[in-house]
Structure to design on (1045 residues):
C-alpha cells in the first residue's frame, strides 16, 4: 500500500474505539496495522498518551511482534518459507529466484509499493514444501517455473 | 500467615509465603550469582544465572522468579546447575566485545566478576560481538549497547523507580536492545539523566561519562547529597583524595535507595572545580591576597569587635546558610547571639519562602514535622500545588509518580502543565496566584457534598463551627471563575478526594508567592477538615529547596527564633538559652536578609558575615545588593567557591563542602541525616564548624569545642527537637522529635486543640496594561537555587542548556516569534534577554523563566522587597512585557 498523508482522523477514531478496553494496546495496534497497512511512527506518541503508557513501551511492543510494522509494506507481501522441510526441498533457490525476480532483498519493499519480500521460519505447510505465501494465499510445491508464473499473475494484476 | 519451611543446600530455612527462593537463600547467607536481579526492582528472570535445582522434582528454575514452596529441597550449586550457569556466561562472553581493558566499568563489571568466579576466561565459542554505535554525545551517560546483556535493569529502573519511560526494549532476538522512542540518542528523548540506570547496569553498556577519570575508585564512602531538601544518600567513589564518582547510597531506609537525579549524580563536579577556595584571603588594596588562618581570623575578630564597640551589636549582620550543617548553623547563630549580641542572623531559607511556613509552624505549635516520603506509596490521595517536583526535588517526584502509577488519585493544580500531569487523574490549570481561593472552594464543596472527618475534628480541633459556617456561605461557582478553572474540574477533584486522606505536596509556587501564608492556612484547614494531617495515608509535605533549609531554621539561624524554633519574643525561652549560654539575649527581633541589605544601604549596618551564601546572585536586584554591600565597612565571606560575593569581600575564608566534613542535615521529611568526611577539604580550607569554632575563641568565647561531637552534644542537649540525635551513633539517621503541645501531635493523647483559622483570601493584583504577561520563575532539574554550585559542574555546563524562556505558541504567533528567537523580557524592576521556546499547552499570557541561568539574571525581574510586604509580588512571579530583541 502506498503511503499517503497520514489520515489522523482515521487513526484517532481507531484509538478512541479501543482506548477504554482492557489490555487495549495490542487490539489497537492490530486495528491500525490492518486499516492503515502499517503503524506510522508519528502515531506512537498519540497512542501512548491515549493509554497513559510510555511511548518507548508502545514502540517496544510494535517492534517485538512480526505482525506489526513501522514501515509501509507493498500491496503484495511475499513470505518465503525457510523451514527445514522447505530447505531440504530447495527453498533457498526459491528465495534466490524471488530476490532476482523482484529485485528486492529480504524485508525490502519495492519503490512502487507493490511487493514486499519477507522470509519466515516456518509456514507450517511442510507437506507443500518448498512453499511461500503471497498475502494470505499459500503456494506450494514450488519450482522455478511455478514461481515465475505466480509472480507473473501478480505483476499482471499490477499492470491492470 | 504460616511460614514456609524448605531446605536450601541441606540447611532448613523458613520464609513468608510469596518470598522467592533467591530472597530466602540470601536472607540465610547463601549466595546465588545473578545479573538481572535488584532488590528494589520486580523480579524479572532475564539472565537465568540464578538457576537452582529442586532435588525432589529435578526441576531447574530461576530462583529470582520462583516462589519458595513447602518442602522444596533446593541445591544452588549442583553440578548440573553449575554446568548450565557456565554455559550461559560463556554465551554472554561470546557476544561481548573484548574491550575490558578500556572499559570504565573495569573491575566492577558484574559480568566480568561472575565469569572470573566461575573460572571462565576465554571461551571456546565462536566470538560474535554484536556491535552497536557508541553514544557519547551527551556529557552524562555513555551508551555502548554492544556490551548490553539485556538484563533489563535500566528499563525496569526507568519504569518502576523513576517512572519516566524514556527507554524500553526495541526489536527482538539478537537485534533487541534498550532504546528510546525512534531509537534516538538520550539527549533527544525524554531521559532526565538521573543516572539510576547507569548505577544499576551490570556491565559497561551504560557508564558515566567522565573523561577525567576512568577506573576503579580506591574507596567508596556514604554521605548525604548537598543539593535539594530531599536528602538522598550518596555513595562517593574517591581516588587520590578526590571524589571521582557518585552513585546512589542504596542504604536500607534511605529516601532514595537506588535512585538519584541528574544533580545528585553529576553536578557534584563543583567539588573539584578550579574555582574552589583553598586559602584564606584578605583584601589589600584592590586585591585579595592569601594570608594565614591566624591573620584572617585575627582580622575578623578585631574588626567585628571594633565595629561592635563603635556602633553597637545591631550594626553587625550574619547571613548563614541553608546548605551548611546543623552543627555549623547552631554555632553560627550562637556567635551572633551569645558573642556579638545581635539577632541579626538569617539564612538562605528566607528566599525559599520561610515566612509563609511560619504560619503553619505557629498554628501546629511546631508539630507536623515528620512526613516520610516513603508514606506516599500508601497515600489515599495526593494533591500537588505550586510544585513541579520532577524539576525541583526529583527523587520526591519518583515517589509521587510511583504512587500515581499504582492507582493513587493524583491531582495537580498548577498554572503550567508539569512533569506530573501526564500521570495525574486530574490536572487543574489554575490562574497564577489563585491557589488560596481554589483550596477554599474545594473545601467548601467537600464539606457541602461529602461531609468531613467528624471524629478527627471533634477530637483534635477547635473552631470548626465558624469555619464551616464560612464554608457554607461560600460560593464556589463564583470563585471558580475567579481562579480561571471550571466547576467541573472542582467537582471532579472533590469526587476524587471524597472520604480520603490527602497527602498535600506544596512547592515554592505557594511558599514563595505573595500571600503564601494565607494559602498555607487554607491548606492547613483543608488538611484538618479531612483529618489528613499527621495521618500516614495523608500528610503535608513542603518541598525544601536546599538540603538543610529545615535544619538551619531549627538551629535558630533566623532573626526571630532561638534554636528549636522557639520564639525569641517569649521571655521564658530566652531565659532558658540565656542560662545555657550564660549571656543576655536581646529580645529584639533581628534583621532578615532583606532588611540587612536595606540597613546597609542606609549605612546603619556596618559589617556583614556571610557563610555559604551568594546573595549577589541569589537575591533580586544583584546590582543594588552589590551597592549596598559596598557601603559596608567590613564584609566577610566564608564559602567554598569563588563567586560574585567573594569578589567584593574584605576577608574570604575557604570552607569545606559537605563531603569534606562531618555533620548532619535535616531534610524535608524531618529526617536528621548524619554523615562523615569522604575526602579532605582542598588546600588550606577547613570545615566550616572548625572555622567558626576558631573564630569564636578569638572573639571571646570561653573555650573551644574542638570536635564536632561536642557541638552536637550541646545542640542535642538543649534542643528538644534534636534530642533523638544524641544516641545516634550507629544509625545514619534519626527523626525530629515531636515537641508540639497539641493533642494532635502528642503521644499520650493529651494536649490542646488545634484551631481552624478563618477563610482567607489573597488579594488580586491589579492588571498592569503596560506589562501584560505573567512570568513564572522556576527551577530546572539541572540547576539548584541560584546555580552558584551547579554552574561549576563541567558536565552540566557542557550540556549546553540555554534556559530558554517558554511562551505559548499562540502568543508566539501574535508576536511573530519562533523557537530560538531572542526576546527581551522586561518588568518594572529590570530586564533580561533570552532565547525563547514555544511550549505547547502553556496558557496564553504566561511566561516561564528558568532561574539559575546566566548569573541568575531572572532575579533582576523581581523587586528587592520582603515577601511579607504588601507591595511584594513574591519571588515566584512578576508582570512583564516581551518584545523581540
Amino acid at each position: 500500500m502506498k503511503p499517503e498523508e497520514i489520515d489522523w482522523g482515521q487513526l484517532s477514531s481507531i484509538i478512541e474505539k479501543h482506548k477504554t478496553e482492557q489490555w487495549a494496546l495490542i487490539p489497537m495496534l492490530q486495528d491500525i496495522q490492518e486499516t492503515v497497512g502499517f503503524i506510522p511512527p508519528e502515531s506512537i506518541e498519540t497512542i501512548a498518551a491515549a493509554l497513559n503508557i510510555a511511548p518507548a513501551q508502545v514502540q517496544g511492543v510494535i517492534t517485538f511482534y512480526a505482525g506489526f510494522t513501522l514501515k509501509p509494506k507493498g500491496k503484495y507481501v511475499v513470505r518465503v518459507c525457510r523451514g527445514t522441510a522447505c530447505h531440504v526441498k530447495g527453498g533457498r533457490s526459491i528465495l534466490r529466484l524471488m530476490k532476482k525476480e523482484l529485485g528486492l532483498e529480504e524485508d525490502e519493499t519495492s519503490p512502487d509499493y507493490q511487493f514486499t519480500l519477507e522470509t519466515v521460519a516456518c509456514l507450517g505447510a511442510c507437506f507443500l514444501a518448498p512453499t511461500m505465501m503471497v498475502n494470505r494465499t499459500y503456494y506450494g510445491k514450488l519450482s522455478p517455473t511455478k514461481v515465475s508464473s505466480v509472480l507473473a499473475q501478480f505483476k499482471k494484476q499490477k499492470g491492470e | 500467615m504460616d511460614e514456609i519451611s524448605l531446605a536450601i543446600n541441606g540447611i532448613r530455612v523458613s520464609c513468608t509465603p510469596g518470598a522467592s527462593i533467591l530472597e530466602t537463600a540470601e536472607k540465610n547467607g547463601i549466595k546465588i550469582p545473578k545479573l538481572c536481579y535488584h532488590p528494589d526492582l520486580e523480579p524479572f528472570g532475564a539472565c537465568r544465572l540464578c538457576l537452582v535445582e529442586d532435588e525432589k522434582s529435578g526441576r531447574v528454575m530461576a530462583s529470582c522468579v520462583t516462589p519458595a514452596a513447602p518442602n522444596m529441597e533446593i541445591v544452588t550449586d549442583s553440578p548440573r546447575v553449575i554446568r548450565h550457569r557456565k554455559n550461559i556466561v560463556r554465551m554472554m562472553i561470546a557476544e561481548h566485545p573484548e574491550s575490558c581493558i578500556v572499559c570504565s566499568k573495569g573491575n566492577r563489571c558484574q559480568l566480568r566478576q561472575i565469569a572470573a568466579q566461575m573460572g571462565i576466561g576465554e571461551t571456546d565459542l565462536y566470538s560474535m560481538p554484536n556491535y552497536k554505535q557508541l553514544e557519547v554525545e551527551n556529557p552524562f551517560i555513555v551508551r555502548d549497547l554492544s556490551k548490553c546483556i539485556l538484563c533489563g535493569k535500566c528499563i525496569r529502573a526507568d519504569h518502576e523507580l523513576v517512572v519516566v519511560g524514556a527507554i524500553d526494549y526495541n526489536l527482538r532476538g539478537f537485534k533487541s536492545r534498550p532504546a528510546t522512542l525512534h531509537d534516538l540518542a538520550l539527549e533527544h528523548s525524554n531521559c532526565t539523566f538521573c543516572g539510576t540506570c547507569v548505577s544499576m547496569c551490570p556491565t559497561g553498556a551504560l557508564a558515566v561519562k567522565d573523561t577525567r577519570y576512568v577506573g576503579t575508585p580506591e574507596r567508596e564512602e556514604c554521605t548525604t547529597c548537598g543539593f535539594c531538601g530531599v536528602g538522598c544518600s550518596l555513595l562517593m567513589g574517591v581516588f587520590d583524595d578526590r571524589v571521582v564518582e557518585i552513585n546512589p547510597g542504596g542504604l536500607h531506609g534511605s529516601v532514595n535507595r537506588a535512585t538519584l537525579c541528574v544533580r545528585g549524580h553529576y553536578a557534584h563536579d563543583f567539588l573539584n572545580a578550579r574555582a574552589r577556595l583553598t586559602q584564606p584571603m584578605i583584601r589589600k588594596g584592590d586585591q585579595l591576597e592569601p594570608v594565614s588562618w591566624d591573620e584572617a581570623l585575627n582580622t575578623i575578630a578585631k574588626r567585628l569587635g571594633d565595629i561592635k564597640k563603635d556602633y553597637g551589636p545591631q550594626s553587625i549582620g550574619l547571613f548563614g546558610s541553608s546548605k551548611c550543617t546543623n552543627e555549623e548553623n547552631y554555632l553560627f547563630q550562637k556567635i551572633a547571639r551569645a558573642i556579638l549580641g545581635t539577632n541579626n542572623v538569617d539564612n538562605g531559607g528566607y528566599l525559599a519562602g520561610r515566612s509563609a511556613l511560619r504560619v503553619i509552624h505557629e498554628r501546629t505549635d511546631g508539630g507536623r514535622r515528620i512526613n516520610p516520603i516513603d508514606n506516599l506509596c500508601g497515600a489515599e490521595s495526593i494533591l500537588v500545588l505550586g510544585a513541579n517536583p520532577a524539576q525541583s526535588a526529583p527523587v520526591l517526584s519518583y515517589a509521587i509518580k510511583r504512587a500515581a502509577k499504582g492507582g493513587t488519585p493524583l491531582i495537580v493544580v498548577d498554572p503550567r502543565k508539569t512533569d506530573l500531569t501526564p500521570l495525574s487523574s486530574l490536572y487543574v490549570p489554575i490562574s497564577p496566584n489563585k491557589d488560596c481561593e481554589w483550596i477554599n472552594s474545594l473545601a467548601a464543596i467537600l464539606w457541602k457534598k461529602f461531609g468531613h472527618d467528624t471524629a478527627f475534628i471533634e477530637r483534635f480541633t477547635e473552631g470548626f463551627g465558624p469555619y464551616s459556617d464560612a464554608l457554607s456561605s461560600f460560593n464556589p461557582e463564583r470563585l471558580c471563575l475567579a481562579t480561571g478553572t471550571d466547576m467541573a474540574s472542582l467537582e471532579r477533584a472533590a469526587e476524587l478526594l471524597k472520604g480520603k486522606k490527602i497527602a498535600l505536596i506544596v512547592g515554592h509556587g505557594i511558599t514563595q508567592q505573595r500571600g503564601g501564608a494565607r494559602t498555607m492556612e487554607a491548606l492547613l484547614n483543608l488538611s484538618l477538615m479531612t483529618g489528613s494531617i499527621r495521618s500516614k495515608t495523608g500528610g503535608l509535605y513542603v518541598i525544601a529547596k536546599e538540603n538543610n533549609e529545615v535544619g538551619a531554621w531549627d538551629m535558630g539561624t533566623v532573626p526571630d527564633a532561638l534554636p528549636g524554633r522557639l520564639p525569641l519574643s517569649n521571655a521564658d525561652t530566652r531565659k532558658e538559652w540565656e542560662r545555657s549560654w550564660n549571656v543576655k539575649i536581646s529580645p529584639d527581633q533581628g534583621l532578615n536578609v532583606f532588611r540587612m541589605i536595606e540597613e546597609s544601604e542606609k549605612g546603619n549596618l556596618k559589617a556583614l558575615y556571610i557563610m555559604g551564601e551568594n546573595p549577589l546572585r541569589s537575591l533580586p536586584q544583584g546590582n543594588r545588593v552589590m551597592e549596598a554591600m559596598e557601603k559596608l565597612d567590613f564584609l566577610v565571606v566564608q564559602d567554598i567557591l569563588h563567586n560574585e560575593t567573594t569578589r567584593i569581600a574584605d576577608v574570604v575564608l575557604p570552607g569545606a563542602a559537605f563531603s569534606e566534613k562531618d555533620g548532619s542535615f535535616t531534610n524535608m521529611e524531618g529526617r536528621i541525616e548524619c554523615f562523615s568526611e569522604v575526602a579532605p577539604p582542598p588546600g588550606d580550607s577547613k570545615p566550616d564548624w572548625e572555622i567558626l569554632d576558631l573564630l569564636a575563641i578569638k572573639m571571646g568565647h570561653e573555650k573551644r569545642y574542638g570536635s564536632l561531637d561536642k557541638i552536637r552534644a550541646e545542640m542535642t542537649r538543649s534542643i528538644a527537637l534534636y534530642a533523638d540525635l544524641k544516641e545516634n551513633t550507629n544509625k545514619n539517621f534519626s527523626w525530629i522529635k515531636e515537641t508540639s503541645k497539641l493533642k494532635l501531635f502528642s503521644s499520650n493523647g493529651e494536649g490542646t486543640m488545634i484551631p481552624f483559622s478563618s477563610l482567607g483570601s489573597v488579594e488580586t493584583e491589579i492588571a498592569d496594561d503596560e506589562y501584560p504577561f505573567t512570568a513564572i520563575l522556576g527551577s530546572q532539574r539541572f540547576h539548584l537555587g541560584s546555580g552558584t554550585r551547579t554552574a561549576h559542574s563541567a558536565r552540566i555546563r557542557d550540556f549546553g542548556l540555554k534556559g530558554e524562556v517558554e511562551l505559548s505558541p499562540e502568543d508566539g504567533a501574535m508576536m511573530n516569534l519562533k523557537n530560538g528567537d531572542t526576546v527581551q523580557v522586561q518588568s518594572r524592576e529590570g530586564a533580561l534577554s533570552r532565547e525563547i521556546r514555544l511550549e505547547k499547552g502553556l496558557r496564553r499570557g504566561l511566561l516561564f523563566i528558568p532561574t539559575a541561568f546566566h548569573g541568575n539574571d531572572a532575579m533582576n525581574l523581581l523587586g528587592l522587597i520582603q515577601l511579607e510586604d504588601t507591595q511584594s509580588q513574591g519571588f515566584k512571579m512578576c508582570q512583564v512585557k516581551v518584545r523581540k530583541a
In short: The mean pLDDT of chain B is 93. The first strand of chain B starts at residue 4 and ends at 8.
